[in-house]
């Protein structure tokens, strides 16, 4: 009897605790005006660096948004991905989803150097990366969103989370849905965010199985074109555009490609495989404006994932190092 009552009370207390956790705003202290007094030229300074890097190499637009994504999904948008190996740090850069794949670190380093010149010790690497990802998307023709500021930089990395918590090119649909749900995203938001594969490139080893397995879910002409650049063995790092139509600009061709069985990765095509995401792909393929506004909203949400604020974390002087 007594223990039953105790259990009930404990259960109620536990559920209140979880409701409390759930309702806690994770971004309480991020704001659009955070650096208005301390670094008024921040936005234009970052944008100049991003523009220069994209003019030099158009692929960089995609690389920067992916860098931001892989930062935010691992212990929040805290620039943890930017830290190099050191005696106290196991770099996330070397985790399998990132190693020899994620790029754009040098662009963020240059933007940081430029920002340090005008307001030393004030702006976090995490905020610079967040602004850069948005600017890159806009410069590639994509939608804009408001980046709230005030993130601080981590003093730690999480190699295990970087290895296991990021989506993988062999994942099935349920795994993709779960990975994004774990970070608070709906299925629709997951499908919208996948539209970032509207620009950028992928290496042969990530799509080889798809183009050689003769599956009924790939367009035959597309498969044979892709096989020419990606032999059944060797040339693992040979690149192909994620969006075969407009590989350097941001638009909804990604979804149109999927409708024609011309998604490059299996995880792209799987979004149209008879499951809960089919209707969303169809919708985005027909309605570019809907896609763009959903994408922008989902990116704003991603860039608010578990930031360090207030006295937590630090402002790094050099993004790749704690000293
Ligand atoms: C849905 C789950 C996802 C999977 C399984 C996935 C997987 C991949 C893979 C395998 C590559 C090629 C990497 C390489 O060959 O080195 C890639 C590239 C890329 N991904 Fe994703 N991705 C996903 C979601 C996202 C999201 C949410 C974004 C951004 C919001 C994103 C942005 C990009 C971009 C822009 C590239 C090209 C980068 C470049 O050219 O440097 N991806 N992704
Ligand atoms: C990362 O890639 C390099 C090759 O560039 C390789 O030597 C190294 O072992 C890889 N790191 C990890 C942790 O797998
Ligand atoms: C599958 O694709 C390979 C590579 O192009 C081709 O040689 C083979 O004939 C195909 N098999 C079938 C059953 O279509």
UniProtKB/TrEMBL annotation:
Taxonomic superkingdom: Eukaryota
Broad class of where this protein is predominantly found: secreted
GO cellular-component term (any): extracellular region
Catalytic activity: 2 a phenolic donor + H2O2 = 2 a phenolic radical donor + 2 H2O
Record-annotated membrane-spanning stretches: none
EC number: 1.11.1.7
Active site: 70
Residues holding Ca(2+) 2: 243, 246, 251
Residues at which heme b binds: 197
UniProt-annotated binding residues for substrate: 167
Cysteines paired by S-S bonds: 39-119, 72-77, 125-319, 204-230
Localization: Secreted
Binding note for cofactor: Binds 2 calcium ions per subunit. Binds 1 heme b (iron(II)-protoporphyrin IX) group per subunit.
PROSITE patterns per UniProt: PEROXIDASE_1 (PS00435), PEROXIDASE_2 (PS00436), PEROXIDASE_4 (PS50873)
Leader peptide range in chain numbering: 1-28
Site (Transition state stabilizer): 66
Amino-acid positions noted as binding Ca(2+) 1 in the UniProt annotation, renumbered to this chain: 71, 74, 76, 78, 80, 92
CDD domains: secretory_peroxidase
MF annotations from Gene Ontology: heme binding; lactoperoxidase activity; metal ion binding
Keywords: Calcium, Disulfide bond, Glycoprotein, Heme, Hydrogen peroxide, Iron, Metal-binding, Oxidoreductase, Peroxidase, Secreted, Signal
Biological-process GO terms, alphabetical: hydrogen peroxide catabolic process; response to oxidative stress
Pfam families on file: peroxidase
Family: Belongs to the peroxidase family. Classical plant (class III) peroxidase subfamily.
Function: Removal of H(2)O(2), oxidation of toxic reductants, biosynthesis and degradation of lignin, suberization, auxin catabolism, response to environmental stresses such as wounding, pathogen attack and oxidative stress.
Name this protein carries in UniProt: Peroxidase
Classification of source organism: Eukaryota, Viridiplantae, Streptophyta, Embryophyta, Tracheophyta
